[in-house]
Amino acid sequence: MINEMRENEAKKIHLTGLNDEELSIFVAEIGEPKYRAKQIFKGLHERRLQNLDEITDLPKAFREKLAKTATASTLKVESRYVSTDGTRRFLMKTHDNYPVETVFIPTENRDTICFSSQSGCPLKCDFCLTAKLGLLRNLTAGEIVEQIIIVLNDVYGASAETPHGMIRRTTVPSHPR
Ligand code: SF4
Fold first, then answer.
1. Is 102 within the bounds of a domain?
2. The dihedral of CA 95, 4, 49, 17: what is its sign?
3. Rounded to two decimals, what is the model's pTM?
4. Residue-number span of the structural domain to which 46 is assigned
5. Which residue among 101, 114, 128, 175 is best mutated to probe the pocket of ligand 1, counting the most ligand atoms within 8 A of its Cβ?
6. Scanning 1, 45, 46, 118, which has the fewest C-beta atoms within 10 Å of its C-beta?
7. How far apart are CA 169 and CA 88, in angstroms?
């Protein structure tokens, strides 16, 4: 039953991974006016909402329609470890059960989020546990953006303004296969 639900979720469009132009095309395809794309984009990226039903400037009927074909959240946080220096390590799982690691590192002058572009890693650094997994699969744009949204909401609170000067980088470089 759970696997069936996961498969159904997997068929939905992950709106978090669409840019504003792609969102405009999406809303046009489902017969909605263009300004809906702006409302969705703002809800997902400025307010960092992860539940489409929370984008309350959209009519309820449209939110219900949207939820049938699209989603704003596909990652599940499996564990979260906070070090004494404030570093937060997250292990997430994709809808198809692949591990995703994301780390928040606070320092005096800036905060850094290290996010993953791939599940696992093709490199074989001796000291690294991720190396033992090998490369499992590339993450989608939505899965990459969602890691940042999850961490920002965890650290600063949902809907709080994103601080300026945040440095973002990937934990794992992209490698041609
Ligand atoms: S590149 Fe990074 S994630 Fe990949 S094996 Fe080396 S230390 Fe681990």
1. yes
2. positive
3. 0.86
4. 2-71
5. 128
6. 1
7. 16
